């Protein structure tokens, strides 16, 4: 039994979530093959070969895969899985990121199986746990599909080591450009701070921040803690910050060691995105705010006093 | 999935859609920012929260809609199987978080974070 993990990358470096996905594959058990499909990613495949637990790296180098467009990538994956008889793989895994969620349903449809989305725990090779109803319930599901197509929520699994492994690299005949889609461009938010979903510390601001300029307060504190900055939907909808900072049911799901919620009341949709954090600190002037019901440490007070004071205290 | 079965192009998490000739430019919300892809029509687009304002049905239209004919199709008539390969074994509540303590001051908070939780 072999497991195919689709690596997420930018042709230069692997995305952190890939390591969590490999960890999930290890729990399922079996040979783990990592598919690196990209353009000019020979060096990347060598990095990928170092990932602990991976036995083989499949390298598909073709301009068609440069941006991992699902129209081109999904047929390649389907061909790898079902090109031989019996099927070469029992499981296909990818991280439940916007890239994984873009590609994998297309793969599942080509294979004519049901996809199992956002698993947080592996119970056995065919039984998994996944959150439903915005994380308010955990469903244990069993799949009888011949090939299990699974997206993995990265916060549910501890990442494997990015080095120490020694997988063989096998170049595979690259696919073709389906010609129905093309990459035009992208605008990536540049940030010196760690990525939201991978950060050890996350500081989020809500409607209580009042305007976008006040987020500077959080950035100053974040720089001292080496933290990422997030926001609640209220803050994003009000235009304080770009929407890739949104933490919650429809935004990013985070599970840092320390989560500091500043001026966030704690709507259930926001809690769904951060309640797996290890320690939660809430700073809010409304002591009735629901955020205090999940916070390990709550501070009732004006954030415009508390945040600078906190930054000062951490410095000293 | 629909896009794969029909062989059409797909644009998921769309925050902006522009049709230009026989193709559509879709701006997608991805983890690090925005990505724009050009798709040949016909294409399948799934939308994100902030694409537009939904067009709500007005009461007169709801009344009119009641008079429209309804076509009822069954999976059998279409010759497809809707059997799922996924079985739900059980559903349980996630581990609940209990409310923690309230601290009085920033100094106390920092002290707790340093010594009790050991996260900073």
From TrEMBL, chain A:
Superkingdom: Bacteria
GO biological process: fatty acid beta-oxidation using acyl-CoA dehydrogenase
Keyword Nucleotide-binding among UniProt keywords: no
Record bears the keyword Electron transport: yes
Electron transfer flavoprotein alpha/beta-subunit N-terminal domain span: 3-187
GO molecular function: electron transfer activity; flavin adenine dinucleotide binding
Signal peptide: none
Keyword terms, alphabetized: Electron transport, FAD, Flavoprotein, Transport
Cofactor note: Binds 1 FAD per dimer.
Cofactor section: FAD
CDD domains: ETF_alpha
A Pfam family annotated for this UniProt entry: ETF
Residues reported to bind FAD: 207, 232-233, 246-250, 263-270, 284
Complex and partners: Heterodimer of an alpha and a beta subunit.
Primary role: The electron transfer flavoprotein serves as a specific electron acceptor for other dehydrogenases. It transfers the electrons to the main respiratory chain via ETF-ubiquinone oxidoreductase (ETF dehydrogenase).
PANTHER family: ELECTRON TRANSFER FLAVOPROTEIN ALPHA, ELECTRON TRANSFER FLAVOPROTEIN SUBUNIT ALPHA, MITOCHONDRIAL
Similarity comment: family membership: Belongs to the ETF alpha-subunit/FixB family.
Protein name, as recorded: Electron transfer flavoprotein subunit alpha
From TrEMBL, chain B:
Similarity-based family: Belongs to the ETF beta-subunit/FixA family.
Descriptive protein name: Electron transfer flavoprotein small subunit
PANTHER family: ELECTRON TRANSFER FLAVOPROTEIN BETA-SUBUNIT, ELECTRON TRANSFER FLAVOPROTEIN SUBUNIT BETA
One GO MF term attached to the UniProt entry: electron transfer activity
Keyword field contains Transmembrane helix: no
Keyword terms of this UniProt record: Electron transport, Transport
InterPro entries tied to this protein: ET-Flavoprotein_bsu_CS, ETF_b, Rossmann-like_a/b/a_fold
Superkingdom of origin organism: Bacteria
Organism annotation: Pseudomonas linyingensis
């Amino acid at each position: 039994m072999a497991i195919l993990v689709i690596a997420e990358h930018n042709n230069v470096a692997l995305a952190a979530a890939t390591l969590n996905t490999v960890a999930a594959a290890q729990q399922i058990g079996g040979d783990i093959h990592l598919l690196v499909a990209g353009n000019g990613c020979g060096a990347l495949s060598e990095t990928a070969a170092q990932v602990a637990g991976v036995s083989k790296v499949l390298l598909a180098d073709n301009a068609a895969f440069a941006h991992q467009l699902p129209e081109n990538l999904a047929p390649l994956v389907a061909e790898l899985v079902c090109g031989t008889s019996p099927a070469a793989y029992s499981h296909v895994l990818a991280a439940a990121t916007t890239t994984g969620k873009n590609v994998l349903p297309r793969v599942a449809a080509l294979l004519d199986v049901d996809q199992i989305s956002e698993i947080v725990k592996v119970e056995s090779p065919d039984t998994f746990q996944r959150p439903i109803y915005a994380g308010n319930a955990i469903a244990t599901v069993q799949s009888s599909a011949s090939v299990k197509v699974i997206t993995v929520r990265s916060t549910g699994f501890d990442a494997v080591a990015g080095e120490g492994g020694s997988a063989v690299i096998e170049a595979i005949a690259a696919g073709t450009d389906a010609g129905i889609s093309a990459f035009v461009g992208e605008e990536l938010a540049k940030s010196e701070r760690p990525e939201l979903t991978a950060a050890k510390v996350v500081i989020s601001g809500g409607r209580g921040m009042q305007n976008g300029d006040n987020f500077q307060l959080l950035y100053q504190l974040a720089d001292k803690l080496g933290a990422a900055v997030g926001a609640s939907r209220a803050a994003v909808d009000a235009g304080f910050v770009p929407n890739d900072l949104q933490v919650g049911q429809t935004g990013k799901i985070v599970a840092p060691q320390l989560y500091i919620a500043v001026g966030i009341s704690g709507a259930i949709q926001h809690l769904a995105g951060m309640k797996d954090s290890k320690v939660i600190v809430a700073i809010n002037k409304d002591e009735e705010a629901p955020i205090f019901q999940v916070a390990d440490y709550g501070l009732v007070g004006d954030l415009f006093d508390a945040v600078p004071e906190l930054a000062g205290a951490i410095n000293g | 999935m629909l896009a794969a079965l029909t062989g059409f192009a797909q644009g998921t998490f769309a925050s902006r859609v522009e049709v230009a000739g026989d193709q559509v430019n879709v701006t997608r919300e991805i983890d690090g920012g925005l990505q724009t892809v050009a798709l040949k029509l016909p294409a399948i687009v799934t939308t994100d929260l902030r694409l537009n304002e939904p067009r709500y049905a007005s009461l007169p239209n709801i009344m009119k809609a009641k008079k429209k004919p309804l076509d009822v199709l069954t999976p059998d008539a279409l010759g497809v199987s809707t059997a799922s390969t996924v079985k739900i074994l059980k559903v349980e509540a996630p581990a609940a978080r209990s409310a923690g303590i309230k601290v009085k001051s920033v100094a106390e908070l920092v002290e707790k974070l340093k010594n009790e939780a050991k996260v900073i």
